[in-house]
From TrEMBL:
Residue span, Alpha/beta hydrolase fold-3 domain: 108-300
Active site, renumbered: 188
Family that this chain belongs to: Belongs to the 'GDXG' lipolytic enzyme family.
Residues in coiled coil: none
Domain of life the protein comes from: Eukaryota
Pfam families membership: Abhydrolase_3
Name of the featured protein: Epsilon-lactone hydrolase
Provenance organism: Fusarium solani (Filamentous fungus)
GO molecular function, one term: hydrolase activity
Alphabetically ordered keywords of this record: Hydrolase
Length: 324
């Protein structure tokens, strides 16, 4: 945040929190009358309405004021779980941290979501830690590296792509790990970053990122609701699910504008723009994509997956990825 909040902005936080609580109370009372276009379960209806109210009500400056910061959340999470923090600053200045032993057989680089403007939270750590425990129960050795990439609007496009590429460079070059040990993962805008990195090392270099060459494919890629299109008007699911998703088109548009900061959207990495031939030599062995039936960007994700499958995924591909 470039400057401290004004007195009015701080006072407005109190008003905003009251507004969010009121929205939650009303949603709880009216949930039984939500109709067919709302989330199917009462629980999801309530969570979506409160989350939506919280995201919409406050400015990005206010959100930044309320955020602890991903790195700080990680340190507190480690303390709560009796773990020793493993913080990193790379030679290029990228900050990040590890969950698990960085010498593990499988390395998962996880790019958090948040529209390039919102930071990671403790919920990410809890979720991916549960995945790590699940893998451990199956005797799969894995560690997670979380890049704390720079956020907009303080650091607009293309800072996020530069940091995403730097995360992979760090693991391969500094830690001397083989691409065949590495899985790229990300949700929403983090999924966009993972795809941009894959494209960058597959012969389609991002002009604003340092060159990074890998001699063999990455082990896998796991994407949760990846942001693959910035043209929201194009996809029917944006209208169909406008009352089911906790995000709304106007909020996404505002985040995109803050992120691009005047840069033409054509300069951003938008996977849906590229033909199937773009992915012909994609340097990844396995890919898992997960999307929800009620999300705004379902149709864009489905369209991209269909394109991606033509060249990069064998017809015998299963509904998951295999990690040994």
């Amino acid at each position: 945040m470039d400057s401290p909040l004004t007195l009015w902005e701080k006072f407005d936080l109190v008003l905003g929190l009251a507004s969010v609580l009121s929205s939650g109370a009303w949603s709880a009372l009216s949930g039984g009358l939500r109709g067919e276009n709302a989330p199917s379960s009462y629980r999801h209806h309530l969570i979506n309405r409160v989350t939506r109210a919280f995201l919409i009500r406050f400015s990005l400056r206010q959100h930044r004021y309320l955020e602890t910061g991903f790195e700080e959340e990680y340190v507190k999470w480690c303390k709560a779980n009796s773990l020793t923090p493993d913080l990193v600053t790379t030679s290029a200045g990228l900050k990040g941290f590890w969950v698990g032993d960085r010498s593990s057989r499988n390395i998962i680089i996880n790019y958090h979501g948040g529209g390039f403007v919102m930071d990671g939270s403790v919920s990410y750590l809890s979720f991916w830690s549960s995945i790590q425990h699940h893998l451990s129960d199956r005797r799969v050795d894995a560690a997670f590296f979380f890049p704390c990439y720079r956020l907009a609007p303080e650091n607009p496009h293309p800072a996020q792509y530069q940091d995403a590429v730097e995360a992979l460079r760090y693991v391969i070059n500094d830690l001397k790990r083989s691409p065949s040990d590495i899985i790229l993962a990300g949700d929403s805008s983090g999924g966009n970053l993972a795809l941009a990195v894959l494209s960058h090392v597959s012969g389609h270099e991002l002009p604003y990122c340092p060159k990074l060459t890998i001699e063999q494919p990455l082990k896998a890629m796991a994407l949760i609701s990846p942001a693959v299109s910035f043209d929201l008007d194009k996809w029917p699911s944006v209208r169909r699910n406008s009352n089911r998703d906790y995000l709304v088109p106007d909020l996404i548009q505002n985040w995109n504008e803050a992120w691009l900061s005047g840069t033409p959207v054509s300069e951003a990495f938008e996977p849906c723009r590229y033909p199937s031939s773009w992915w012909k030599n994609a340097m990844v062995k396995q890919t898992l994509v997960v999307a929800a039936s009620d999300e705004l960007e379902l149709d864009s994700i489905a369209s991209w997956v269909e394109t991606f499958q033509v060249e990069s995924i064998p017809s015998s591909n299963t509904q998951g990825i295999e990690i040994d």
